[in-house]
Amino acid sequence: MKLGRDFTNLLYFGYLSKDEQRKLEAGEMTVADMDATVQVVAKGDIVGQVEAAAGYGLDHVELDGAVPNPYLDFTEEQSEEAREAAKDAGITLSLHHPYTYVGASVCAPYEHDRVASVGLHKKYLDFASSIGCKYCIIHPGVVPFYHAAGIYFDLIRSSLVKSMVELGEFASSKGVLLHLENNTAFDGAFFEPEDVCGVVEEVRSQGVELYFNFDIGHWFTRADVGRPVPEPPESVIEKIPAGVFKELHLNDYVPVKKLFHPPLQDELGLLKRDNLIKYAKLIKAKGAELVVIETAVKTKEQIMRRDEIMKGENEFLRKILR
Q1: What is the DSSP letter of 215?
Q2: With bands split at pLDDT 50, 70 and 90, how would you rate the model's confidence at 319?
Q3: Core vs surface per residue 55-93: b (16+ CB within 10 A) or e
Q4: Mean pLDDT of all residues in 238-264
Q5: What's the Cα-to-Cα distance from 59 to each of 5, 166, 180, rounded to whole Å?
């Protein structure tokens, strides 16, 4: 089973100017401001991400398509450079599609919104294919709370299935395996594995290839909407059908504090070492091929320790997953 990483903001410090680095170190720039300042440039440096992955002994890079990003503006030359760099380094690629703004409307019950969103995601699938991505990951969309039940939910689910049929067919034509990822509980719907698996199975029943990317950290957010996480938390995987996995996202979550993506080796959330050992056995038995780490830094102190955090996390997970 391969181990990869979505670098999120772990490489951003190196893209700041010397003056911006000084401001961040002095507390005159926030981590969020750092992200906003350099994320487009950093995301566009796919060659740099591939080199970082190779340097850390990883197998895979997942590109972060959260908006803003530069990907739809890539030239043929940039795409070829990225594709060749990954091939030469023996690093496989995937693309995480945008999941906010227009990208979040794949389940919209209003057809004009849904069509606009599907059209946007097709452009990202085109880009992903041009750089040789093996997988693409898409969220089921965000809904208002009053659309999360009853007939309203039936409408948004029907729209999501329609979108996934279109996008799954398009992805297959481009040689990309499309994955539908579970939302966080704060997105209103499609955060429970059975809801997402149901959509995947219905799309597959129409002869379209689609997979489920289970994000266990996203699932943990149910604890903050009145749905406790069972003990042990990784046991949820036992209920997921075999054969729906190719790639999974691995990150942790701290309920109440609502802390997303802390370093896994720090064991701050619900995934302790013993849980991860059982997690690894379960996902292997279900047929997972790739685990993508999604840790992100939240504080200035973590940014200063980013290399140490990544090396420590990689070593921690290699012993468990491999």
Answers
A1: B
A2: very high
A3: ebebbbbbbbbbeebbbeebeeebbeebbebbeeeebbb
A4: 97
A5: 9, 30, 22
String of DSSP letters for 108-125: -SSHHHHHHHHHHHHHHH
pLDDT at 322 over 80: no
Question: What tens digit of pLDDT does each residue of 43-59 get?
Answer: 999 999 999 999 999 99
d(CA 292, CA 280): 13
**CATH of region 2-321:** 3.20.20.150
**Side-chain half-sphere of 247: how many Cα atoms within 13 Å?**
30
Domains of the chain, residue spans? 2-321
Instruction: Give the pTM.
Output: 0.97
Q: Are strands 253-254 and 290-293 parallel, antiparallel or unpaired?
A: unpaired
Token duo for residue 62 = 């997942």
Residue 84: φ, ψ to 5° = -70, -35
Residue 77 has what DSSP assignment? H
The DSSP code sequence of 88-100 is HHT-EEEEEPP-S
